[in-house]
Write a structure and sequence with these properties.
single chain; alpha/beta; Helicase, Ruva Protein, domain 3; Rossmann fold; 7-stranded mixed beta sheet; 10 helices; 36% helix; elongated
Length: 281
């Protein structure tokens, strides 16, 4: 039977992850909580906590997976986004912090008590749709995704978070929205090109390629959305897109060619241009 205190286990895990992660102690704390229910506060105050043998075995397996580069969110099955605890599966991308900027930009267009129609294209785990639903309870939100397993996960998240009013539909981008018109269309589509070095990172190796890749230059999905979105927007409707940090000029050109105006690009927390919003006149 193990007699190793949680604080000792935590230090050992952090040391084992020191070459596999930029945040080894944080990773160790997350894994310890996932496997044992022991959080950093319990360890810091010196609680006499000893993980069981089975918990130690689970932790060791988790550490190996993390050493191989697997994202923490896939190991634990959870990721926080917009203060919401999302469950993930291997069919969904891990929500990125900069995607919250897209949510911020959409919310800035919608007064709190306004009943509006919103579409979230390529919803994945449901992160964007759920964040918007949590902030704008009167909104009618439709979320699409081509992947049945991703949609199943999004629906499960919506039920668990008490946001089950979202209308989830299977299909490619705007395809399931025939005859529908929206005040806002938002999307975090694939924007990585074939052969992009980003695909070689340890993180993305574990993510669904369908949710990452968008043709040779990474703009195939964005082109499709820019060309088709106007048919589903109300007058003065907003289109909000997340894109790669070097794609803003091309995205702006695509939007101008499609007839959009009021085009604005917002930078992420690292100062990189990542979210473009525009309006349909």
């Amino acid at each position: 039977m193990s007699d190793r205190q949680a604080a000792t286990v935590l230090r050992e895990m952090a040391a084992a992850l020191s070459t596999a992660s930029d945040t080894p102690m944080l990773d160790a704390e997350v894994l310890l909580h996932a496997a044992c229910g022991i959080d950093r506060t319990m360890v810091a105050r010196g609680d006499n906590l000893t993980p069981t043998d089975s918990e130690i075995q689970a932790l060791e397996a988790m550490v190996v997976r993390r050493q191989q580069g697997e994202p923490i969110a896939y190991i634990t099955g959870h990721k926080e986004f917009w203060s919401l605890d999302l469950e993930l599966n291997k069919a969904t991308l891990v929500p990125r912090p900069e995607t919250e900027i897209l949510v911020e930009q959409v919310l800035a267009c919608i007064p709190v008590e306004t009943a509006v129609d919103i579409a979230d294209l390529g919803t994945g785990s449901g992160a964007i749709a759920l964040a918007l639903a949590s902030e704008r309870p009167r909104a009618h939100i439709v979320a699409t995704d081509i992947s049945p397993p991703a949609l199943a996960q999004a629906r499960a998240n919506a039920r668990r978070l008490g946001l089950a009013t979202i209308d989830f539909r299977q299909g490619d981008w705007l395809e399931p929205l025939a005859g529908m018109h929206f005040d806002v269309i938002a999307s975090d589509p694939p924007y990585v090109g074939v052969g992009d070095p980003e695909l070689e990172t340890r993180h993305t190796r574990f993510e669904p390629q369908q949710a990452l890749l968008a043709g040779k230059d990474g703009l195939a999905a964005i082109r499709q959305i820019c060309a088709a979105a106007s048919a589903h927007l109300k007058a003065d409707g907003v289109l909000a897109l997340k894109h790669g940090p070097g794609q803003q000029t091309t995205v702006q050109a695509l939007l101008l060619a499609a007839g959009f105006d009021s085009i604005v690009c917002t930078r992420d927390y690292a100062g990189l241009p990542r979210v473009t919003t525009c309006r349909w006149p």
